[in-house]
Amino acid sequence: MRAMNYRGPYRVRVDEKAMPRIEHPRDAVVKVTRSCICGSDLHLYHGMVPDTRVGQTFGHEFCGIVEEVGPEVENLKAGDHVLVPFNIACGQCHFCKQGLFGNCHESNPQATAVGGIFGYSHTAGGYDGGQAEYARVPYADFGPTIIPDWMDPDDAVLLTDVVPTGYQAAEMAGIQKGDTVVVFGAGPVGILAARSAWLFGAGRVIVIDHIDYRLESVKSFAPAEVYNFKELDDVVVFMKKTTDGLGADVCIDAVGAEATGSMLQTILGKRLKLEAGSAIALHWAINSVKKGGVVSIVGVYGPTGNMVPIGNVVNKGLTIRANQASVKRLLPKLIEHVRTGNINPKAIISHRVPLDDIADAYHIFSDKLDECIKPVLLPSGA
Amino acid sequence: MSDTNLALRISNPSKAVDTQSIVGWGVDADPQNDPTYPYRNRTEDNHSGEWRRPTQQEAQVELLKSVEHKWLPAVFGTASPPSGVSGSMRRLAFRWSESNWAHWLLLIAADRVNMIEGLVEDLGRGHVPNIPKEMGVPAEWRHNKAGLLKKLAVAAAIGGTVTGLIVAKRNAGKREPSAS
Ligand SMILES: [Zn+2]
Ligand SMILES: [Zn+2]
């Protein structure tokens, strides 16, 4: 089969690879119909995530048709079209029992802090991902969800990560009716977080980024007030000024490790890789939020330490909530939001690219060329 | 909360104290005061670390396991097992826990070595990788011609300067042979 093949930072191609097999009785093999490149794949692509091995296939956002199931999978059969949550979760361990499907303890030997994730380095379990014609799906009786007849597969594939992640960012923030919510980052997750903030009753939603075309897309999708931080002298001072000098009730970090805006953070985190990426978005979130406010983090950071202004967290009495989205827990609610039109995920798709052109797709997304927001990959047979 | 539930919640029951002997134990407990909502399902919470485990996958390739794990998780990926020099570096890294900086910096360093191994492997089987294509240069040409030309010009200028410096140094070396 054809599959993406990582060759080192900024280098990917499509190669012929062995077909995935059933390796565990709860596995399924899925023929991929859609996969996406995610902003967090760019951290892998840029060589930021430890233990990203040459030869791996990325892709944690995909849906596809069940080809074969292992003997312990009874609720799926060949031919079912499923969307596959990016978390690999057993559904029965200490954490899964609490609905923490993003923190499963039975899917990743290489680390305890993070659960298994498809195609996301060996730090997240060493699984090959869905940027391929076929993928092995462990715990297939638990994670994969049959796509409803009425649902467009373009919507379905976005329910595997960006929609639940954006939604959970707003949920973790405990937004109260009328709250002012600031979202740092106008990528797909930031856009969805802004949209979701309204669903929780926000009174004002502000989105900050440094790329104008991304901010324009937020205006139409969310809709929200948008600001380009390159045009602001000081992001934190601006936020205080626009919120009566108090700060926002809620700040959401939807950027993570590759934030721009600080030379020091760029050198330490992005160039030298001595910390878990540039934490500038998190700095701004902590410093722009009101005392007693909530900072919600869904931006991806590496496992090493970070320069984070923890003193301000203490002095301001902040609540910090953070996690990988527990996709499976949120799916019933989000499928309903898609059905009723409260969320229209496919509106953020900007590029549809054949799998064979994956190197171009990564480069376009990484370098923000051609006004790219969200690229979807189509396997040759789909 | 009943005592039976309490017993379940203590991670190591042999270390438990008799809470009945502590004056005022639990009087301010408020189940509504839960900043972790909606995550922690307190009713089924089992702090003992034992649960009905899934069937264990059999390892057909070499796996590296975090020293923080009590047991091998029931499923795992089998992509790109450790190999070569980078593999040895990764094995070394897994002597340390995830809280140790050395663990992660060694893995990042192994990734860089692995990239070179990938190149050697490609050449070894007679495949010369098309690096510009793998880096998406065709897309850059389509969408950012000016930017690409500028990058190439800068690269050429740096290349030219470096070559110039080397040549100049060589020539200088010829003119002024060292005293030794
Ligand atoms: Zn993703
Ligand atoms: Zn689990």
UniProtKB/TrEMBL annotation, chain A:
The keyword Metal-binding applies. Gene3D superfamilies: Medium-chain alcohol dehydrogenases, catalytic domain, NAD(P)-binding Rossmann-like Domain. This is Glutathione-dependent formaldehyde dehydrogenase. InterPro entries: ADH-like_C (IPR013149), ADH-like_N (IPR013154), ADH_Zn_CS (IPR002328), GroES-like_sf (IPR011032), NAD(P)-bd_dom_sf (IPR036291). PROSITE patterns: ADH_ZINC. Keywords: Metal-binding, Oxidoreductase, Zinc. The keyword Cell inner membrane does not apply. It holds the Pfam family ADH_zinc_N. Its cofactor is Zn(2+).
TrEMBL record, chain B:
Residues 25-54 are annotated as: Disordered. It comes from the Bacteria. Residues 41-54 have a biased composition (Basic and acidic residues). This is Uncharacterized protein. It comes from Sphingomonas glaciei.
